[in-house]
Design a protein that fits this description.
Shape: elongated
Order of helices and strands: EHHEEEHEHEEHHEEEHEHE
Helix content: 25-40%
Strand order of the largest sheet: 1-2-3-4-5-12-6-11-10-9-8-7
CATH superfamily of the largest domain: Gcn5-related N-acetyltransferase (GNAT)
Low-confidence stretches: 320-325
Distance between the termini: 51 Å
Number of domains: 2
Number of helices: 8
């Protein structure tokens, strides 16, 4: 197609889960090379579908922008447990769509996702995305730039310079209230995406963390001093990469600056080291670019930046009745 198209010639419409355009739509939304035949599936799409099935996430909210019969753009809402959805969208190679049409597609997807009682939509855009100008018109607001970091599992760790002694608890139904309390305490004056605090109840947040990868309760650790939770770190083996992800790490406000964060990362490194080498070679995480203390900490632990995305969010009107638990 040409470098641009007229707005009047484009139509936004849903792509049915069992429709003939679903495979092309998924390839577009996931920024994978388009399939060359009806049975051709790019590994990125195959991995996504297998991962979604394993984690219990839904991917049936898929919209397309059509130029006549041709699909030229797609937007996908990946719904996870915890009433949140990740929005993925991209255009066909060479397609330059009017901002108003891309905003219309995002807005229709947002309406459909909120109708299913999701509370939070997250839109992660690569540098220079053509969708960025449409996001605010569709009702998204920019959150921050998320930096993606990795650390080889055998990287050197900082020397222990008097880190505090803690007692560890792994996640279980009896320890659930303590994990909730630890996360609640870690939100106070947090510098990592503080705008997300209070959008969803913490039980929803935990449900989302459980669905972030291959949930193993032995990889969720709570640090206690006495009977007080002072920090929490949640790890999850990634299904599509040879890495273990730090899904969440937080330190109670009153315990910051005392070395608890070092203790948490040391715990993570030791747990990852116990996993067989071949499938899990890295520790990975994402951090808010604005969180300079955390970035400095991660640098001391050997993490390096491997990429970034611009993070945008949209929230449902239901969030005003969903205060943190």
């Amino acid at each position: 197609m040409g470098s641009s198209v007229r707005e009047q010639s484009l139509e936004v419409r849903p792509i049915a889960p069992d429709g003939p355009d679903r495979l092309v739509g998924l390839h577009l939304a996931l920024e994978a090379p388009l399939p060359t035949g009806p049975a051709a599936v790019h590994p990125r799409v195959a991995d996504f579908l297998a991962d979604a099935a394993q984690r219990g996430v839904r991917s049936d909210l898929l919209l397309g922008v059509y130029l006549g019969p041709r699909l030229v753009s797609a937007a996908l809402a990946v719904e996870s447990p915890g009433r949140a959805a990740l929005v993925l969208t991209a255009n066909a190679p060479g397609a330059q769509l009017p901002t108003a049409v891309q905003a219309q597609c995002l807005e229709q997807l947002m309406v459909a996702a909120f109708a299913k009682r999701n509370l939070l939509l997250q839109l992660l855009l690569p540098p220079g995305s053509a969708v960025q100008d449409a996001a605010p018109s569709a009702g998204f607001r920019r959150l921050t730039r998320l930096l993606y970091l990795q650390r080889p599992r055998d990287a050197a760790s900082p020397a222990n310079t008097g880190w505090p002694t803690v007692r560890w608890l792994s996640y279980s139904p009896p320890s659930h209230p303590l994990f909730v309390e630890a996360i609640r305490r870690s939100y106070a004056q947090s510098m990592d995406c503080p705008e997300l605090t209070g959008i969803r109840p913490i039980d929803d947040v935990l449900a989302g963390h459980r669905a972030a990868g291959q949930f193993d309760p032995q990889l969720w650790s709570l640090a206690l001093q006495g009977e007080e939770p002072v920090g929490v770190i949640l790890l999850s083996p990634m299904t599509s990469q040879a890495a273990v992800e730090v899904v969440y790490m937080g330190v109670a406000q009153v315990s910051r600056g005392a070395g608890v964060a070092h203790v948490l990362l040391d715990r993570a490194v030791r747990l990852v080291s116990a996993i067989p080498v071949a499938p899990r070679s890295h520790l990975a995480l994402a951090v808010d670019e604005r969180n300079r203390p955390a970035r400095g900490l991660y640098a001391r632990w050997g993490f390096t930046t491997i990429g970034f995305r611009e993070a945008w969010i949209a929230t449902s009107s239901l969030t005003r009745t969903s205060a943190p638990s």
